[in-house]
Amino acid sequence: MKNQENTDFETRSLDSACINESQLTHHWYHNIKYLLVGILFGIVFVKSEVVSWFRIQEMFRLQSFHMYGIIGSAILVGMFSIWLIKRFDIKTIYGEKIEFHSKSFNKGQIFGGLIFGFGWAITGACPGPLFAQIGTGATVIIVTLLSAIAGTWFYGLLRDKFPH
Fold it and tell me: Which Pfam families does the entry mention (predicted)?
């Protein structure tokens, strides 16, 4: 595989998880709705025990269905939601079209998934509930948060050298 530098935004955007192409601008206080949804999401994580280190270890030791049920439910809801958006051409609340770009599978996803899974198993935390865990008083998770930020920064720095 030859090493080529890819700086074209359009090409790189097709290989990212989410691209915000909205041209709308809002006042800062419009973001409060995201803060409120985040707080609600954190409460749901705590109440469903998704932030529990014990539950995460149980999952990786194949001792309980609890986390698999939650993850499976989230996957089904996501699949159904995407089907609805595509089927009925649902727009954003501001009337903008929602676009889905095809993604190609590559070996980097396997390596990334393994690294992600190992980190999740070792720390007992995945990126979703990190803030909820910190909010419940598990301040040691700040080390995991900083490690996740450092790993993301490191990946961004060396992205073009990794197999994609």
Answer: DUF6691 (PF20398)
User: Whole-model pTM above 0.85?
Assistant: no
Radius of gyration of the chain (CA): 19
Full DSSP string of 105-160: --HHHHHHHHHHHHHHHHHS--TTTHHHHHHTT-TTHHHHHHHHHHHHHHHHHHGG
Residues 134 and 145: beta-carbon distance below 8 Å: yes
Number of Cβ atoms within 10 Å of the Cβ of 116: 14
What 8-state DSSP symbol labels residue 97? B
42 by Cβ neighbours in 10 Å (0-12 / 13-18 / 19+) ranks as buried
Using alpha carbons, list the distances in angstroms from residue 51 to 24, 57, 118, 143: 35, 11, 17, 16
Q: List 97's β-bridge partners, or say none.
A: 91
- CA atoms of 52 and 50, how far apart (whole Å): 6
Give the pLDDT confidence of 12-52 residue by residue, as tens digits.
555 555 566 677 788 989 899 999 999 999 899 899 998 88
DSSP-derived 3-state class of residue 91: strand
